[in-house]
Design a protein that fits this description.
alpha/beta; TIM Barrel; 15 helices; S-adenosylhomocysteine deaminase activity; EC 3.5.4.28; 5'-methylthioadenosine deaminase activity; 5-methylthioadenosine/S-adenosylhomocysteine deaminase
């Protein structure tokens, strides 16, 4: 008896593109068919393998395009678009630098406007999930999520008095730590794994130097109790290393290990000033390094990513506060590793860079079994690049071309959870010009106050 033909009903069918899937079973698909039903991928394969009875509410021809999994940006500060073009030349993180706007200067309406600006930029450039931290997270979480992308966010946890840090004064107050931690836990209660899984919280420890030893232990206990991952800056400056060494007698990595935070659920940004013991310690713990290659290089530094990966750490990518172009960040991550190795090696190739921007990031966010890969049954998060442009033509190796010459501005379409949130390079849920204007106004007001 002949089996009845297979039927496939889809909400959206994308045809004709080349897909770089990150699925080892079919890593590269020419003349691909990507079928989406609800929030999931219902078919990922070649067009000629589509079931004969395939119906789609909407079909889009994408000849001349390349589709990749949506980027997962594991470390960013959307509000810090306010110091774009300035922070890069300070040689130090904005929180430690006098004379510029700081987190405690940002008013609620300004935070919302700047956060939406930063999140919009990330989404337009192909990020489908951002892990953001800064101030007023209780307000900015929803404001960013409304744009359509997945948003993890948290207010920065610290018990230092930040108003004195830029001037070299380090005072810790238990009440400040209690307030920031309680705010973060309340945020998690409201937003973690909500909005159909599109929002979440990682406890955002600002840094080992801006958190006292006792407060770090308190955070570690809270993370275990509430089953939350932790993100932090680690060994991001010589000042951090010096302050922690003087205060606690340890390196920042040793301190985080002692208090119970150095583990496989930690996402640690920068990781610049690590000695041999620190690198081995981080590798054994299985941490994720939130690698910020362009931001670090702009400051004259680079993380020892080849050694960290060899030691056992996972490398994922973030944009920090400079821009939100994860495609450019992939290029810098590859170049920085090769500079340290002094060669083009087989294990630092474009596929490794894309893994850092997608699959590794998804794993760091606890979503590694459903995000970061174009695979039937997984979440339908993807970015479509227009490869008909001069700098992307020809492209005998689409992945190599994307990593070495692609730009975030080449993104034409973004899908998050099956929803088309960017189409024709424009957002579908908001007025981009209005978001840009509001962010510009907020930054102008902040800079006026900082200069008086």
């Amino acid at each position: 008896m002949t089996a009845p033909p297979i039927e496939l009903d889809l909400d959206l069918l994308l045809l004709g593109a080349t897909a770089v899937t990150m699925d080892p079973a079919q890593p590269l698909l020419h003349d691909a068919a990507i079928g989406i039903r609800g929030e999931r991928l219902a078919f990922v394969g070649r067009a000629h393998d589509l079931p004969p009875l395939t119906r789609a509410r909407t079909t889009r021809r994408l000849d001349g395009r390349v589709i990749v999994p949506g980027y997962v940006n594991v470390h960013t500060h959307a509000i810090l678009t306010m110091v774009r073009g300035v922070a890069e030349d300070l040689g130090f993180a904005p929180a430690y630098t006098p004379g510029i706007p700081h987190g405690h200067d940002v008013r609620p309406d300004e935070a919302i406007a700047l956060a939406r600006l930063g999140a919009l930029e990330a989404m337009l450039f192909g990020s489908t999930l951002i892990n953001d931290s800064y101030v007023h997270a209780d307000l900015t979480m929803e404001a960013m999520a409304e744009l359509g992308l997945r948003v993890y966010s948290c207010g920065r946890l610290h018990d230092v008095d930040f108003s004195g840090v830029a001037d070299g004064h380090w005072e810790y107050h238990a009440a400040t730590g209690e307030r920031t931690l309680n705010d973060a836990l309340a945020l998690a209660g409201r937003w973690h794994r909500k909005r159909n899984g599109r929002t979440g919280v990682q406890l955002a420890v600002h840094a080992p130097d801006t958190c006292s030893d006792d407060f770090l232990r308190l955070i570690a206990d809270a993370a275990r109790t509430h089953d939350l991952s932790v993100t932090t800056h680690l060994a991001q400056s010589r000042t951090e290393v010096s302050v922690v060494k003087q205060r606690s007698g340890k390196s920042p990595a040793q301190l985080l290990d002692e208090v119970g935070l150095l583990n496989e659920r930690l996402v640690a940004a920068h990781c610049l000033y690590l000695d041999d013991d620190d690198i081995a310690r981080a590798g054994r713990a299985g941490i994720t390094v939130a690698h910020i290659p362009k931001g670090n290089a702009t400051g004259g530094t680079m993380a020892p990513t080849p050694r960290l990966r060899d030691a056992g750490a996972r490398i994922a990518l973030g944009t920090d506060n400079m821009h939100a172009d994860m495609t450019e960040v992939m290029r810098w991550a590859l170049a920085i590793a090769r500079i340290q190795l002094g060669e083009v090696s087989a294990d630092w190739q474009p596929a490794d860079a894309l893994a850092m921007a997608t699959r590794n990031g998804a794993q760091a966010m606890g979503l590694g079994d459903e995000l970061g890969c174009l695979k039937t049954g997984w979440l339908a998060d993807l970015a479509v690049f227009d490869f008909q442009r001069a700098h992307l033509t020809p492209h005998p190796n689409p992945l190599g071309t994307l990593v070495h010459t692609g730009l975030g501005r080449d993104v034409e379409m973004v899908v998050v959870g099956g929803e088309l949130v960017v189409d024709g390079g424009a957002p579908t849920r908001c007025d981009a010009d209005a978001v840009i204007a509001a962010g510009k106004h907020a930054a102008t007001q902040l800079w006026k106050r900082a200069s008086t």
